[in-house]
Amino acid sequence: MALTGCSPDARSSGDTATSAATSSPAKGEQGADGTSSPQALPASKVSPSANSKVSPSPVPAGTPAASASGSTASAGAGSGDDDCDHKMPISPDEIAVYRYTPEGGSLSLIIRHGNWGCGTPDSDGAPFETVGKETYLPMDQAAYVTVTDPVVASTENQPIGVQEFLDWLEAHPDSGLVFRYHLGADGAIDRLEQVFTP
Predict the structure, then answer these.
(1) Which of 4, 20, 25, 196 has CB atoms 3.0–4.6 Å from 148's, for a disulfide?
(2) Is residue 89 left, alpha or beta, with left meaning phi > 0 and alpha meaning psi from -120 to 50?
(3) Closest to 86 in 3D by CA, of 76, 94, 71
(4) Which pLDDT tens digit goes with each residue over 107-159?
């Protein structure tokens, strides 16, 4: 047997048998045995997973689009980063007072309605932006009036008489000072408080 293994014929036949054994089990494994088919399947699975990796790549491509839209939204939010709405509704209880008139035998303030705008970084506060035309608002002669600077030298509201307030308005027409008001049962202003604006 040792001679058979050493003979050149045995080597060639053994090599042929070995090569046949290696080639035939490989062929048999590809067709019937599951050992080689998993080797073939991962190769086929890798390419579909590569395709599936290619198909998710449009999703990441969509993700930057979403992030771009998010940056647009953040840019939109950045324009209103001070929580300031440029479409604020008209203030229901604040007015800018310009003048007064005693026409018709009763006292009326000449006012404009408005709302608070957006302040700028170099300003002390938000401006009161008036809208529409000047209108009349009747005022009670005995109304409770409080004012601050520039009517009086104080940053806190100080009570003054109605006539004193009218005198100041006459001396400083079209000042546009902002006041918070309240109407009495008769529809006339019975309370008027100046809003301090720096």
Answers:
(1) 196
(2) beta
(3) 76
(4) 999 999 999 888 777 777 788 899 989 999 999 999 999 999 999 999 899 99
